[in-house]
Design goal:
about 160 residues, 8 strands, about 20% strand, globular, ClpX-type ZB domain-containing protein
């Protein structure tokens, strides 16, 4: 039995052929915590202020605030594994992402997504993306260049 990384409750895994042979990804959050995150379902649209597509994984609500508080402020690095599948599904294949913070870099590293935190290195690429934890992080840093995709872990409503 595993413990939820957010609430320390029990994480139950379904018993199936995939879980017996470990081809199913392990679960790090209990059902209650995982279901408390609201997925961002809007289509990626070009931001009029910036001119590139902005997408998100989740809506920033109480569950998102709790996650960010533990992951960023309390430096609970184990939480980097929680959303690797969701992040991978939203990233553009073959695109290298610029990260603004160490926490964002750790999430992409854990998800196996190519990234760099060096603006000079990434600006030489023909196409690249930007990955941030939330909207305010994106607004803090002005980056120019051939940005094809901006992915936020949490989008404010």
């Amino acid at each position: 039995m595993f413990k939820c990384l957010l609430c320390s409750g029990d994480v139950r895994r379904e018993l199936s052929f995939a879980t017996v042979f470990e081809s199913a990804p392990p679960k790090y959050l209990c059902v209650k915590c995982h279901e408390s995150f609201v997925k961002w379902h809007k289509k990626s649209a070009s931001d009029a202020n910036y001119g590139y597509a902005v997408d998100a994984v989740f809506i920033l609500d109480d569950a998102g605030q709790n996650y960010l508080e533990k992951y960023v402020n309390l430096q609970d690095d184990e939480l980097a594994v929680c959303f690797t599948a969701e992040i991978r599904s939203k990233c553009y294949a073959g695109l290298t992402y610029l990260t603004i913070s160490d926490e964002a870099s750790q999430l992409l590293k854990t998800a196996g997504i190519p990234f760099s935190n060096e603006v000079e290195e990434i600006e030489n690429l023909r196409e690249w993306g930007l990955f941030c934890l939330h909207e305010n992080e994106r607004k803090e840093r002005t980056v120019k260049g051939n940005i094809n995709h901006v992915l936020l872990l949490f989008m404010e409503m």
